[in-house]
Design goal:
The chain is mainly beta. Helix content is 7%, strand content 66%. The chain contains one helix and twelve strands, in the order αββββββββββββ. Strands 1-2-3-4-5-6-7-8-10-11-12 form an eleven-stranded mixed barrel. A hairpin with an 8-residue loop joins strand 11 and strand 12. The longest helix is centred in the N-terminal third of the chain and has 13 residues.
Length: 195
């Protein structure tokens, strides 16, 4: 498993040369021993460039096995701007092994009007095995000026792999831009540590 993980990471980061955006994300999760609570802190680093760095925090509540809701804070270093909003997760199981996780985020800049609101939809379709899940991830960002004026920037959709080992979960994705049929790729490595 360790060799497979290392080979996958090396291969995907070799493709970094064609990636327009390549964030490395470390997420720390804890529930402080409180049932249904979920606290997450996520520094997002674009290859150690502070100009592209952002930090996110989530405080979540598990409604049931397939549904969670979060309060969401994000600070973008490159904009020097704080966003507040919410995140809603809903997982659908088609079979014991095939699932679709739907993640919806809505963010507004703190202290500003809603001309710069952001809506994000992240669908994850997975085939789940014991310690590995393979499938596809989408990352679709919408700029919301008014309810009747929503523009999609670049929707990225591509392959994803999730590997789980004890309290560490690793997700690697390579998502091409499908709207503009360009050579832009979003290469993302997410490392989740559960305390």
């Amino acid at each position: 498993m360790r060799k497979f993980l290392l080979s996958t990471i090396v291969l995907l980061f070799w493709y970094r040369s064609i990636a327009q955006t390549a964030p490395v994300i470390a997420e720390i999760r804890t529930d402080f021993g409180i049932e249904n609570l979920d606290l997450r802190f996520r520094p997002v680093i674009y290859f150690i460039s502070k100009r592209r760095m952002r930090r996110e925090a989530y405080l979540g509540y598990t409604i049931n096995r397939t549904t969670k809701i979060f309060a969401h804070l994000r600070y973008n270093d490159y904009e020097k701007k704080l966003y507040t909003g919410f995140r809603f997760d809903k997982q659908i199981f088609f079979t014991d092994k095939i699932s679709l996780n739907n993640q919806f985020r809505y963010l507004s800049p703190a202290g500003e009007n809603n001309d710069n609101d952001i809506g994000i939809y992240i669908p994850d379709l997975h085939y789940n095995m014991k310690n590995v899940s393979i499938g596809f991830r989408g990352f679709i960002i919408n700029r919301i000026k008014r309810l009747d004026k929503i523009s999609i920037s670049k929707p990225f959709i591509g392959p994803a792999i999730i590997m789980k080992k004890n309290k560490l979960m690793t997700m690697i994705t390579l998502l091409p831009d499908i709207k503009q049929k360009s050579d832009d790729y979003l290469l993302m490595a997410l490392f989740i540590f559960k305390l």
